[in-house]
Design a protein that fits this description.
about 130 residues, 5 helices, 2 strands, about 70% helix
Length: about 130
């Protein structure tokens, strides 16, 4: 694995574990961006946090990296309705409306994050396969 890919993987691992932990550190932020049509924002937020942490941990080991990367890809696809809902301009975070620029940036970031995770799904296992 190239040095660039090792650094990228480390950033991905730390990023998803930290993002998952952040769901529990500041739950109001995440609960505030969950669309109103999705029931039980507290449960959805907690599940998303646990799954992000789990996927980050799975990325650590070559034998589980594929599962972690594809778990992240699935999560990012599942998170798309949140980002699309933000485009409507009535999502509040900490009492402030999410701006259209912020909403579009978050939406356009999703494919980049999906490709990043996909890049790491292609790692060989310990046995070289």
């Amino acid at each position: 694995m190239s040095t660039l890919k090792k650094i990228s993987l480390l950033i991905l691992i730390v990023g998803y574990i930290a993002a998952g932990l952040n769901h529990f550190r500041v739950p109001a932020f995440y609960e505030g961006i969950i669309p109103l049509y999705i029931p039980d924002p507290k449960l959805v937020n907690a599940a998303a946090g646990v799954l992000e942490i789990l996927c980050g941990l799975l990325l650590i080991f070559p034998k589980t990296r594929w599962y972690g990367a594809w778990g992240i890809i699935v999560l990012l696809i599942l998170f798309l309705p949140v980002h699309i809902d933000m485009l409507k301009g009535h999502t509040e975070v900490n009492g402030k409306i999410v701006t259209p620029v912020w909403a579009w940036l978050r939406l356009f970031l999703q494919p980049v994050l999906i490709l990043w995770a996909w890049w790491h799904s292609k790692e060989p296992t310990d046995d070289g396969s």
